[in-house]
Amino acid sequence: MNVATDMSLWSLVLQASPLVKAVLVILLLASIASWVVIFSKRRLMKSTVKEMEWFEDRFWSGGNVRDIYEEIHRHDDHPEGMPALFKSGYEELRRQRNQVDVTSVDVVPSVQRAMRVTLSRELERLESGLAFLATVGSISPYVGLFGTVWGIMSAFIGLGDVRQASLSMVAPGIAEALIATAMGLFAAIPAVVAYNLFSNRLDFIEKRFETFMEEMAGIVERGVTAANPVKRERAPRKPEPSEPVRTAPEL
């Protein structure tokens, strides 16, 4: 077997020490698992944003919140994302309205708490897998570096009994050791990039969720106050010319 064949990538991997091979296998499995998480998380984020945009268009098209609630149930028995926030808020509103002498002081905090609990669950669902990507991105270079250090150390130890060392004798050992570093970077870089992209996307979704919760609470407060007036409300603010005109649903 000639030197060029011995220095091929596959030959270097096969000739590596058992510990370096174990490091390469661990990094390969981590890379495969991170790509599985990346594709599944990308699909989840995309479907969440699509569902959010559909619901916002429907919600601000006017009508009645009960009609929106029934339409959500027809669309999905177990809604997720922003429809889930609305569902939990509306169901809490309906429970509160069945009580006697209900005021906005009692209803609005209850609706907000119900939506906040759902928000926590939705964020937990969306955040699942991000910790794994962060772990792979942070420790993979160090795992690869460990394999590199071990491989280089083994290569130089093997020269201890040699009187006249040459580069051709130590080059294969160093090359196979550096493969571990390359494998660590191969596993870490996509995980870090995906983690940052998904984190930014999650922040965007969370802000949209929180904005909707505030808008929903305002609609509930105005509806309950109108049904049980205690004081005259101020006229609603007219939208600025650059703001889109939206029609809030009625309770």
What does this protein structure show overall?
- The chain has 251 residues and is mainly alpha-helical.
- It has one domain.
- The protein is built from 8 helices and no strands.
- It starts with a helix and ends in a 24-residue tail after the last helix.
- Helix 6 runs antiparallel to helix 8 and helix 7 runs antiparallel to helix 8.
Write the SSE topology:
Elements: H1 3-6, H2 9-15, H3 18-59, H4 65-75, H5 82-97, H6 104-127, H7 130-157, H8 167-227
Helix pairs in contact: 2-8, 3-7, 3-8, 4-5, 5-6, 5-8, 6-8, 7-8
List keywords for this structure.
251 residues, rod-shaped, disordered N terminus
Distance between the termini: 82 Å
Question: What is the residue-averaged pLDDT?
Answer: 82
Count helical runs.
8
Unreliable sequence segments: 1-5, 231-235
Instruction: Give helix and strand order, one letter per element, not per position.
Output: HHHHHHHH
Structural class: mainly alpha
Number of strands: 0
Question: Per the principal axes of the C-alpha atoms, what is the gross shape?
Answer: rod-shaped
- DSSP strand (E) fraction? under 5%
Radius of gyration computed on alpha carbons: 29 Å
Helical fraction: over 70%
Q: Give the domain tally.
A: 1
| Largest sheet entry | none
